[in-house]
Amino acid sequence: MQRNLCTKLKRQSIRHYFSERCAGGPKSKDFWPTLKPFLSNKGLLKDPVIILSENDNIISNQISVASTLNEFFVNAAQDISSVPIPDDILNHPSIQKITDHIPAPTAFDFSPVTSEIINTFITKSNSKKATGVDGIPAKIIKSCSKTISEPLAKLINLSFATSAFPNRLKEAQVIPVYKKKDPLDKQNYRPITILPFISKLFEKAINSQLSTHFENMFNPFLGAFRPGMGCQSTLLRLVEDWRKALDSHKYVAAILMDLTKAFDCLPHSLLLGKLSAYGLSDKSCSLVSNYLSNRKQRVKLGPHYSEWADIVRGVTQGSILGPLLFNVFINDIFHFLDKSSLYNYADDNTLSYAHSNSDTLIHTLQQDCTSTLQWFNINQMKANPSKFQAISFGKRGTRDITNFTFENTTIHCENSVVLLGIEIDHSLTFNTHIANICKKAARQLAVLKRLGHLLTRQGKLAIFKSFITSNFNYCPLIWHFCSKNLKKFRREHFDLFTMIIHPRIMTF
């Protein structure tokens, strides 16, 4: 009887805990922190205090941890061994390629902005973003957008006129987020950069004008950070090109290239040289140069902060302007290829080629891969050939291509590779990918079965959309599943909807 009483009290405590913390539904501040540990362990540390191991020493003091992480984030790309940039930037191979392909680019100068434009930027901004080091929340600025938009427009126009970006708006606060593997290793943390809200308004004014100028200059295979383009469009173009080649009885192969800290590597002098080659005036280049220079960041861990550190290269992740500048920097890589096609999405680069003769395909792909590595080297970006992956597709299901050799490295063709979150197998059936997401959905369904009677229907729907449907809705046009996989897909959805609408109560 005592055991039954203890079990009863335990179940009552569990119900009370969840009903108290989840009563407000998904909008409650306690809803997601309570349920996420049961649904996902991604980026989850049980203890909010970060402890690191450095040179066989344990660092537990949070100020020291913050300083260690800040130094690592700032210097992550400083040890790159690459070809030095020539003093005369016009002699750089990338600049020469740009001028060869665009000998007379359209001249660009920044135009003044109006208060109406700034007001639109403010009203369309997300007011829930974290506050920067200036301590001014976005919602305060949004609440007085009509009043503040005019003085902000004057300040931004003054910035355009003087080619100066305010130094106080260059100060970034960094929150380290655990990724995976060993939590004691500083390399397993990624920086989340928080900039002042006003800084983002300045950047939006710059970005909106630069985006218009560059849109027709960007290569169509440059897939990231562009309107109407994304992971799905990049993957769809790649997979459909493979299918067309296979339908023409050609061999197909691809090499997936790995880059380290791509956004942190960009040398500012070369980036400015490319901007000039694409038609930006000296005054416009000076503004971008001022925006990139004298940037600082510090790491925040709870109430603890590191010292400020200078950022001397790269573009800020989490900024508005950074992704566009990255695209500008990498755009000329396509001019260095002979016959292969390069499918780019940010720092993911997939080199692919198709030919009726397997030996010709191997030779061409190896040659273009070497050219791509040379581009990375002269542009001071760090590639890891040992981490490259390869996959091949043969005529009528055969696989005559087994490996590639370049830069004293041999890459063996895999049965499947993961590209932009989609697992692609050598038969292009996507069976493994579909099986994996169905398996993941089944695990989360098991959690819902245990917790379902403790949650409202609204809460269960929120979990369904956030943790389950999101997997099935990610790049769905890429999947080409047969009836067997379609039945599995439908069964998972049926079970989930049944659980939400009419849950069975399960004991713990």
TrEMBL record:
InterPro entries annotated for this entry?
Answer: DNA/RNA_pol_sf, RT_dom
Reverse transcriptase domain: which residues? 158-424
Show the Pfam families listed in the entry.
RVT_1
Domain of life here?
Answer: Eukaryota
For this entry, the protein name equals Reverse transcriptase domain-containing protein
**Naturally occurring in which organism (per UniProt):** Ridgeia piscesae (Tubeworm)
